Amino acid sequence: MSLTLTDITLTYPDGENRLTALDRVSLDVPQGSLTAVVGPSGSGKSSLLAVAATLITPDTGTVTVDGTSTTGLTRGELTALRRRRIGIVFQQPNLLPSLTAAEQLQVMARIDGRAPRTARDRALELLDAVGLADRADRHPHQLSGGQRQRVNIARALMNDPTVLLVDEPTSALDRERGASVIDLITRLTHQRATATVLVTHDPTHLTAADRIAEVHDGRLHLPAPVRRDSGAGRGTAR
Length: 238
Known about the structure:
This protein is an alpha/beta fold. It has a domain at about 5-95 and about 160-220: Rossmann fold (3-Layer(aba) Sandwich). It has helices at about 45-50, 75-85, 100-110, 115-130, 145-155, 175-190; strands at about 5-15, 15-30, 35-40, 60-65, 70, 85-90, 165, 195-200, 210-215, 220. The protein has a six-stranded mixed sheet. The chain starts with a strand and ends in a 17-residue tail after the last strand. Residues about 230-238 have low confidence and may be disordered. Keywords: ATP-binding, Nucleotide-binding, Transport. Pfam families: ABC_tran. It comes from Streptomyces prasinus. This is ABC transporter ATP-binding protein.
C-alpha cells in the first residue's frame, strides 16, 4: 500500500470543548489507483487530506506513506517525506508570476538538491506529459486557467512522488476544462503508479475513481469499489 491511514482521530479546540474533525478514519489507497473523497462542506474532507499530507498530526492513529510510518518523525523528517514522496495539487495553482511554466517545476527539484540541467529535463518531460510541451517558456498570465492547473499537476509530480493528493482541482474551471483535468489526473495515476486521493464536490468526476469514500461528520463511509471491465489500479479500503 502506498498510502494507509489507520484509525485516525483529529480534534480541534472549540471553546472549552473539542470539535471532532475525523472520527476513527481508516483508508488504504494502493499504487496506481484513485480514491475520490466526497462529502458536504465541513464534513472533514480537507482535514483528511491535510492529515494524509502530514501537514497536520492527528490526535490518534497512524499515517503510512510508501511503507514509512510518520509516527515519531521530526518536523524536518516530515518535510523531507513530503518533498520526496508526496505530491500535492492545491485548489488554486498559485504559480509564481515571474517564472515560466518550466521554471515553476524546476524550483521544486532545486529545493531537493537536483542539478539544474537534470531539473530542466525533468520539467520538460512532465510538461510534455500534461500536454504543455509548447508552453514551457510561457508565464502564468500567458496561460489559460486549465493550462495553469496542468502546470500545478506537473509541479506536484516533479519529484516523482508515490502519493498524489488533489484538492478540488476543477473548482475554478468550466465543465469541459474540468473534465480534461480529471482525465489527466486519472491517466497520470495509472501511468506513474501513484496512490491518488482526489477531494471533489462534482459528482461527474466520480466515474474516474477506483473507490469513492464519503465523509459525513468526520466519519468515513466506503461503498464497494467501482466496477470496470478493465483498467489498472483498483482501490481497496477498509
